[in-house]
Amino acid sequence: MKKPEIIRSPKPPAAKDFLWRYFDIHKFLKLLHDRTVRFARMDQFEDPLEGIPISALVTYAEKVNLNLVKNVSLSELILDKTLFDPLPLPLQKKLNAINAIQRTSFVSCWFADATESVAMWNLYANADGVAVKVQFGKLVRQLVMAPARNLSAYYGGRVSYQNLTNVYRATQNNSVGRVALRKDSSFKHESEFRFVVRVNDHHNAHTGLDSQPLALHQLNMKVICHPRMPRWKKENIRQLLRQAQLEHAFEESAIRLRS
């Protein structure tokens, strides 16, 4: 079994600090049933600049300055394959490198904060959703991957949020433990800690990977229902937890909202 290497800069959470995952009800049911954590392939994320090397930004900026690329953003170049062929060869190579990084990187994203977040509820769960809260140290000990020939790296680290629209500022602040730990500053409200699995084959067809099964009763996790969830639905969540022998995991939300 392979445990994650923890990237030490920026400083990771302390062992007793909390990480959060916000789930819709179906993903939560999968967690209870399979007891695994899903790692999504990076090219499935909404931000096309996920995992982008700074060198790709520099190459793109150089081509814009030379009037070789006009009226199109780097995000558009990544998203629209029809724009690829007319590009200068150096930029084609950079786009291919981005594609390879995104297709070989599988990520599990967690919210790193002491308290729950209204913003994260709004982004990742509706009124039927739940949040799972777990101590960082307990999660790291259990979140292991099965050894595989094509697994090249497994690590975890805080995300560094940088202004990727300004290539010159980005190059001045380009130090990250791994490229999968860089995101544009427009996403900084997500306050992410990521676990990242890298594989060798960028031609793989899998859009996600699962961790090895967790011993959920040893995680001492807490399950918090959405602040707007009706009481009868909360009782359903309690019943699910009892059936999973996790009855002590239920915790009321600390957030109160106007109805």
Overview of the structural elements:
The protein has one domain. The protein is 31% helix and 22% strand. It has helices spanning 25-34, 54-65, 74-79, 89-104, 118-124, 136-142, 167-172, 216-219, 231-243; strands at residues 5-6, 18-23, 38-41, 105-112, 130-135, 151-158, 160-162, 182-184, 192-199, 208-210, 222-225, 250-251. The strands form 2 sheets. Strands 1, 2, 3, 4, 5, 6, 9, 10, 11 and 12 form a 10-stranded mixed β-sheet that branches. Helix 2 runs antiparallel to helix 4 (89-104). The protein is globular, with a radius of gyration of 20 Å. The termini are far apart.
Per-chain topology:
Blueprint: E1 5-6, E2 18-23, H1 25-34, E3 38-41, H2 54-65, H3 74-79, H4 89-104, E4 105-112, H5 118-124, E5 130-135, H6 136-142, E6 151-158, E7 160-162, H7 167-172, E8 182-184, E9 192-199, E10 208-210, H8 216-219, E11 222-225, H9 231-243, E12 250-251
Parallel strand pairs: 1-6, 7-8, 11-12
Antiparallel strand pairs: 2-4, 2-5, 3-4, 3-10, 4-9, 5-11, 6-9
Helix pairs in contact: 2-4
Number of helices: 9
Fraction of residues in β-strands? 15-25%
- Please trace the helix and strand order, writing H or E for each element: EEHEHHHEHEHEEHEEEHEHE
Share of residues in helices: 25-40%
How many strands in all?
A: 12
Supply Rg. Answer: 20 Å
Indicate the low-confidence ranges by residue numbers: none
User: How many distinct folded domains?
Assistant: 1
Shape: globular
Largest sheet: 10 strands, mixed
The average pLDDT is: 88
Derived structural class: alpha+beta
What distance lies between the first and last C-alpha atoms, to the nearest angstrom? 47 Å
